[in-house]
Design a protein that fits this description.
heterodimer, A: mainly alpha, 76% helix, globular, B: 14 helices
């Protein structure tokens, strides 16, 4: 009996390794091939059978994609960073106090208001795109950071997430502060917020990544080469050079993922835990 | 926010003499609304107003370049019902979503089952397998459009070892949606994988032990314990998957431009074209509202189908 168990456990582990190795290859090989081919010349890449390992690795494509006059990867990266950071800060500043009100304070209409907010999560964001685009146009916010930062700052999912988290904080901690004469603002900023750093970081990371990777909205509210964001820039790169200079396009793709990978390496544990905590911000 | 910082116990000196005394309950209520104000302003402008405006616009012939915007009642919706391009895009979107959600769910479940076994470096595998989910659709599209290239693509090269002749993945109307789906599975299975891992870790170990003592084999354990107890997780994964992948446009936008012909044209792609290429904002708003209705119906149906089978 014990022997059978051990054999079964061994079998399970064998299948587990097989699946994991196969999936790791599925995930990793495409990245490896792309990195490798971004180090090749155009001649090497357009050849059959395809080269997998570069014979004379060169950084020429990276230099090329960063210095061409009609591409501005440096500016696009800066725009993406500034916009995503600004947007993340706006979401936290706007949503955290609202979440505190829903979690802790009693006021008339609290439940009804919260239910209305939750209902709007069900409605796909495309519904708001046209009116918001026209508003951006009328405010003369097209091609500006304002258009990238403020629409979407009222993140209902963020309020929902933070409210759940704030409600788990023991009420007694706040009551002790009340004894010391703390008002609501101090209870919020000095007790609840510091105790919620996990939830706040998880929310911040996913709001940041979601915004950094967004394509549709930046695509419609930016027009000039200088104001594009990185994902939009990649589509420009692809349509301009995809046919003739594939290695350069691949170099651009690799470059665009480096900031994300740095964030991932630093925060991997928090990101992995945060996905389950936040439900991936209701998406991927 | 000074009105919000009621300070009981701090003495009366915080309150100017002209300010009337407010009782505690009232104070809490005022504080709550002050805390909510910034959020409510943004919500009202960018979500509440925008939703009403979209519904309203969908009843007008609202063209971005024409000054006159006549009220047309339900004409936009009637046109939508007769619009072959819309229905074709909807069909593509449904096919793509079905393949992608099925694929990501199966791959994610397999990965989660493997990673929750007592394997070495489980965390390394988890981190690696989630990595593509962090990339932007731009990077994913640029990578896969090249891998799937019919002339020089590595995928065709790999298949050639099995004697398979070069396949025109993105140029063949029958293959373009499966190819985009494969791309998307690669990109997106990490999220359902992590959700499944959490779900699997929530299944109590003693259930498996009890079943093993009764002589159940691995397959029986999976179908009689794991799968039934994962049902809420599967519901969550498929519902969020359908909602997410139904809004696909980046992959075809970058990799195929909706082609060949219109074989990979999707609803959101069509929405983009009506509003920002043809400038028909009113009609575009009608497309968006229709999308919202379709997605609400699909979600409700999914809930009914999956929750009906729960008999435990």
């Amino acid at each position: 009996m014990a022997l059978m168990h051990r054999r079964r456990a061994w079998q399970n582990r064998f299948w587990a390794y097989l699946v994991l190795v196969a999936l790791s290859l599925f995930v990793f090989l495409p990245m490896l091939v792309v990195i490798s081919q971004s180090l090749m010349t155009n001649m090497e890449v357009t050849r059959w059978p395809p080269q997998i390992v570069p014979v004379h690795p060169t950084l020429f494509n990276y230099n090329d994609v960063l210095t061409r006059q009609d591409l501005r990867l440096d500016l696009w990266l800066r725009n993406s960073m500034v916009a995503a950071t600004g947007h993340t800060l706006a979401v936290l500043v706007i949503c955290a106090p609202a979440a505190y009100a829903f979690a802790r304070l009693r006021f008339r209409g609290s439940n009804a208001l919260f239910a209305i907010l939750l209902l709007t999560i069900m409605i796909p964001s495309q519904v708001t795109l046209i009116p918001n685009y026209l508003l951006m146009r009328d405010l003369k916010w097209l091609d500006s950071f304002n258009a990238l930062i403020f629409p979407g700052a009222a993140n209902v999912f963020g309020v929902f997430l933070l409210r759940q988290f704030f409600m788990q904080i023991p009420q007694e901690l706040e009551e002790a502060a009340v004894m010391d004469g703390a008002g609501y603002l101090r209870r919020f900023t000095q007790i609840v917020l510091p105790l919620s750093s996990n939830a706040l970081t998880a929310l911040a990371i996913f709001v940041f990544l979601g915004h950094y990777n967004d394509l549709f909205w930046p695509f419609i509210v930016t027009n000039s080469l200088e104001t594009r964001t990185l994902p939009v820039g990649l589509t420009i790169l692809n349509s301009a050079y995809g046919m003739q200079y594939r290695p350069m396009v691949l170099a651009g793709a690799v470059l665009s993922t480096i900031p994300i990978l740095i964030v991932y390496i630093i925060f991997q544990r928090r990101i992995i835990q945060g996905v389950t905590l936040t439900g991936g911000m209701g998406g991927r | 926010m000074t009105g919000a910082s009621a300070r009981p116990g701090a003495g009366p000196d915080w309150r100017p003499a002209w300010l009337p005394e407010i009782n505690l309950k009232r104070r809490e209520e005022i504080a709550a609304w002050l805390f909510l104000t910034p959020f409510l302003i943004f919500f009202a402008v960018f979500i509440g107003r925008a939703m009403f405006a979209a519904v309203q616009m969908s009843f007008y012939d609202w063209h971005a370049l024409r000054p006159s915007r006549p009220f047309v009642s339900f004409e936009n919706y009637e046109e939508l019902l007769r619009d072959d391009v819309f229905w074709f895009a909807l069909k593509n979107t449904i096919v793509f979503t079905a393949m992608t959600v099925a694929g990501t769910t199966v791959v994610a479940l397999a990965a989660a089952l493997a990673v929750t076994q007592p394997v070495r470096q489980a965390n390394f595998f988890r981190v690696l397998l989630y990595m593509p989910s962090l990339f932007s659709v731009g990077a994913v599209g640029l990578i896969w459009v090249w891998l799937l290239n019919s002339q020089f693509g590595v995928i065709n090269y790999g298949l050639s070892f099995f004697g398979i002749r070069p396949v025109n993945w993105l140029g063949d109307p029958a293959l373009v949606l499966p190819a985009l789906s494969l791309t998307t599975i690669w990109w997106a299975f990490g999220f359902p994988m992590l959700i499944f891992i959490a779900g699997l870790q929530g299944i109590p170990e003693h259930l498996y032990e009890a079943a093993r003592i009764d002589g159940a084999n691995g397959r029986q354990l999976f179908f009689n314990i794991t799968l039934p107890l994962l049902r809420p997780t599967i519901l969550f994964v498929t519902v969020t998957g359908v909602i997410g992948h139904f809004q696909v446009y980046g992959q075809p936008f970058i990799m195929t431009n909706g082609g060949p012909g219109r074989s990979s044209y999707t609803v959101i792609f069509y929405f983009y074209h009506t509003a920002w290429a043809s400038f028909r904002m009113g009609y575009g708003a009608a497309v968006a509202v229709a999308l919202a209705v379709i997605m609400a119906v699909v979600t409700v149906v999914q809930f009914l189908v999956i929750s009906r089978r729960v008999e435990y």
